[in-house]
Design brief:
Largest sheet: 2 strands, antiparallel
Shape: globular
Structural class: mainly alpha
Strand content: under 5%
Helix content: 55-70%
Length: 187
Amino acid sequence: PAARRRAVNAIADTIGVMLAGTVEPAAAMATAMAVDEGRGTSRIVGTRHVTAAGAAALANGVAAHALDYDDMCFVSLAHPSCALVPAILAAGELTGATGAAVVDAYIAGFELECRLGIVMNPRHYHERGWHCTSSIGTLGAAAAAARILGLEAGAVRNALGIAASAACGFKENMGSMVKPLHAGLAA
């Protein structure tokens, strides 16, 4: 119950920072690209636009991290919710997920991010220069989406393998519009 309460607060907070971030240049560019290149019914939060689920997750992830007001986890050394929440919202829209399923998916993704952070950090972030929001967040978002999509064990393994292959993000990009793009790509 305590984890669920924390997850609900994190999801609500992230939707708030997404709404605030939609007017930022990086978010506006991501939204324009998502609308231009995607077709579907997934919402881009804070706009009237709908697009494909992956494109919506990208645009919402960029908006969630554009102002850098999103949450921070000192175990994963990442901003977990800016990747988790957009991925969960997009997957949840595809499946018609319940609120409880959204919360459970958030917890699964967050747990994976923390476990990775325990074994990888602080070296991964401080010495090797990786932006954990992207490198670890990609795997957390994949785990959360897999949960909400109800994937079988083999498909979850494949999703995590693909996510690990796509995970990236250098700290050198901090201070540029690429930093919030990391969150969008992770989502």
